[in-house]
Amino acid sequence: MELTTIWFVVIAFLWIGYFALEGFDFGVGMLLPVLARNDTERRVMINTIGPVWDGNEVWLLVAGGATFAAFPHWYATLFSGFYLPLLLILVALIARGVAFEYRHKRHDAQWQSRWDMAIVVGSLVPALLWGVAFANILAGVPIDADMEFTGSLLTLLNPFGLLGGLVTLTLFITHGATFIALKTVGDIRVRARALAWKSGLVAAVLAVVFLVWLQVQTGTVASAVVFALAALLLLAGVAAAYVGREGVSFAGTFGAIALAVAGMFVALFPDVMPSSTDVANSLTTTNAAATSYSLRIMTWVAAIFTPLVLGYQTWTYWVFRRRIGTHHIPTAELASR
């Protein structure tokens, strides 16, 4: 297998990890005003992702860095053409991260309410825009012979792109609900479980429409098989949420998101950014790649450090595997001592 293909697979794996892990983070953030009835319950929800959310974002940083190093032309075209959506995602992620760190600094209702809103918006914006971005990448965008994006923001806001945004939005809400149900006890758990199967049905309908549309446009037999498996896992997760099998439900949404992203990369290959202007202008794993020497060095570095990072993150999830509830949250008086 050529190194360009290997690094295409590596980048696909990184995006799979990012969406499957950060997806429930976004879902928890968006559901903050929906499932929590008071500040104590909001703190419970935030604490479910408190030890892991920043580690989950590392997948995005590594995916971006790997794209820059392995496929510099892809990186340049993507980040220049999608500049405004990516900037909005970056600002949202920064606001969200700051909110996690600052909301507990003052025990003031208005102060905490504003930071809670930052968490909600900072989760909703990326959840929507990532879907819009990837849908456009898959469908193809206007690229000229110099590998430059020639469209505008309105080019990206097409029906297929917006549907992709709604799919990721509803999928992440469902994924977050299944995670909350898995990680909490008490009333929040009951509410999350009830919401998970309802939002899951909406996500399933939107996802099936999107994947069929994608399959008709650019799909292959291999991607069709992967998409079908993703749909089955999502339906299994929804059914498990309905009967109260939280672990199975979370595994279903996790697997569905992972396979859906994998199917997108299968449908995309060997392109990395198709051109809707002229097929000859499409960026591929060959014409967008770095030099073979750079790819060899990157391969050795990845082979050494990737297992270490995966091991550390697995250990983190194991350490913080317990459920939490309102009885674990200290009162404001105790927290201020």
Walkthrough of the structure:
With 337 residues, this protein is mostly helical. The chain has one domain. The protein is 77% helix and 1% strand. It is built from 14 helices and 2 strands; from the N terminus they run ααααααααααααββαα. The chain has a two-stranded antiparallel ribbon with strand order 1-2. Helix 1 (3-30) packs antiparallel against helix 7 (109-139) and helix 1 crosses helix 9. The protein is globular. 45% of the residues are buried.
Main attributes of the structure:
14 helices; disordered C terminus; single chain; 337 residues; two-stranded antiparallel sheet; mainly alpha; 77% helix
> Span from first to last CA?
59 Å
Q: Largest sheet, order of strands side by side?
A: 1-2
User: Portion of residues in helices?
Assistant: over 70%
Q: Pick out the low-confidence regions.
A: 333-337
Shape: globular
Strand content: under 5%
Please summarize what this structure is.
The chain has 14 helices and two strands. With 337 residues, it is mostly helical. The model is unreliable at 333-337 (pLDDT under 50).
Task: Walk me through the topology.
Elements: H1 3-30, H2 32-35, H3 39-49, H4 53-70, H5 72-81, H6 83-102, H7 109-139, H8 153-156, H9 159-183, H10 187-218, H11 221-242, H12 246-268, E1 271-273, E2 283-284, H13 292-319, H14 332-335
Antiparallel strand pairs: 1-2
Helix pairs in contact: 1-4, 1-7, 1-9, 1-12, 4-5, 6-7, 7-9, 9-10, 9-12, 10-11, 10-12, 11-12
